[in-house]
Amino acid sequence: FRSYVANKDGLKSVKDSLEGDDWCKVENHKKTAFTLTPDKSDHYVYTDEYLNYLGNKIGKSDSATGFKAYALDNEPALWSHTHSLIQKDNILAKDLIEKSIDLAKTVKDFDPDADVFGPSLFGYSAYDSLGSDWKQIQAENSNRYRWFIDYYLEKMAEAEKENGTRLLDVLDIHYYTEAKGECGVRKCNHYDKDGCIKARIDAVRSLYDPDYREKSWITDTGAKHFPLLPKLKKSIDKYYPGTKIAFTEYDFGGGNDISGAVTQADFLGVLCKYQVYFASIWAFDRADYQFAAINLFTNYDGNGSYFGDRYIESSSSDDYLLSSYAAKNNEDGKFHLILINKAIHEKTPVTVQLNSKDYSKCRNYYLDKNGTRIHAAEKEIKIKGDKLVIDLEPMTVNHLVLE
Q1: How far apart are CA 351 and CA 209, in angstroms?
Q2: Distance CA 394, CA 346 (A)
Q3: Mean pLDDT in the chain?
Q4: Which of 27, 75, 78, 35 is nearest to 53 (CA)?
Q5: Which letter, b or e, does each residue of 300-334 get, where b requires 16 or more Cβ atoms within 10 Å of its Cβ?
Q6: How far, in Å, CA of 179 to CA of 196, rounded?
Q7: Cα dihedral angle (306, 206, 131, 241), rounded to 10 degrees?
Q8: Where are the beta strands (DSSP E) in 244-386?
Q9: How many CA atoms lie within 13 A of 268 on its CB side?
Q10: Helix, strand or coil for residue 271?
Q11: Distances in whole angstroms, Cα of residue 381 to Cα of each of 56, 299, 326, 368
Q12: For residues 203 and 174, is the Cβ–Cβ distance under 8 A?
């Protein structure tokens, strides 16, 4: 395709417009006083002046309306494809670090309390070896980095020591499953094929289960960075302790089928377990069932009630069949238990062993194959002492609320 720029003189190609006056160069730091009405004839746009404008317009992160966080980048490993007129060659890892530090300093100078996210890596290969200079960096450092993420975290930690303030708060990555089902296509829409449904549901295991191997090009090439979350935690602990984790783009598919809700709910439970700070779905197709699963965590009764704010360890005797995630809500004392029945065709009888006899009643809010509306079970589940028994319908996400 071709891109064009429209201005008062009509249409011209982007390439031709680069040689004219249609574009302004971005500089992070303005050497003169800020203004809320920038000079349109100087051919520069200043990041710090823009941040000052935002501060005047909507406030800083400690206000009700200001931005709480800023992302430094978006998928820099792809810039030579997505922004080829400006980034003609693959980005160098050293150049990305330099740009990241300078821009992060600009943000923190404006709003020290705002979170800085970076570097929004597009996927597995970018986690592994981002820049065209990666082999050189490894050689210079005796191959001591397991992957690019180690190098990035170490350099941002060094930048904090140099500048006296943390410049990276959140390690930001994107995750789109590459797992394929029996059809050989990732994120397929074959909801009538058990092998494809199972591949979607099991794909979440690549984030945490060392015994699971998805069918994908990643495992074909060794999958040395799976399971992903323990590897991320290990890198953070070694190179930049205190850094939080974000999935600012992710998708497992299944938007038109209950398997999408089952997978989405399992993913959210894993995020809770591993204390992931932030996540935002980016679905390429309709995501009705994924959104329903998110609602089951965040608004299960339609009145804003949500999964608890203090995570509690729970376990299942058969994690391939049933996932469980628990939390306590400190505000009202309710105990929340998410039970996900991943059996495609059969009911699953479940006995829940509680660690307390303090609860007397339980209500189930659930999603099933009959649509994206969250159902509230008509009858309460009986709790006998510290046990409750429930038969779970196949392919259901169940949010048990105990009082």
Answers
A1: 24
A2: 5
A3: 94
A4: 35
A5: beeeebbbbeebeebeeeeeeebbbbbbbbeeeeb
A6: 9
A7: 60
A8: 244-251, 278-279, 310-312, 322-328, 335-341, 348-353, 361-368, 371-376, 381-384
A9: 28
A10: helix
A11: 53, 21, 17, 18
A12: no
Cα separation, 254 vs 179, whole angstroms: 13
Among residues 132, 29, 124, 45, the alpha carbon closest in space to that of 88 is found at 132
* Active-site choice (75, 182, 393, 403): 75
Number of other residues whose CB lies within 10 A of the CB of residue 48: 17
Q: Which residue stretches of 129-168 are H helix?
A: 134-140, 148-163
In 3-state terms, what secondary structure has residue 366?
strand
Residue 104's φ and ψ, nearest 5 degrees, are -65, -40
Residue found by looking up tokens 């190098």 in the block: 151
Q: Which amino acid is located at 393 in the chain?
A: E
Compute the distance between CA of residue 111 and CA of residue 94 in angstroms, rounded to an integer: 26
Amino acid at 316: S
pLDDT band at 314 (very low <50, low <70, confident <90, very high): very high
Contact 259, 184 (CB under 8 A): no
CA torsion sign, 229 to 231 to 232 to 234?
positive
Cβ–Cβ under 8 Å, residues 202 and 277: no
pLDDT tens digits for range 97-128: 999 999 999 999 999 999 999 999 999 999 99
Q: Please check the confidence at residue 8 and state whether its pLDDT lies above 80.
A: no
Amino acid letter, residue 299: N
Residue 75: active-site member: yes
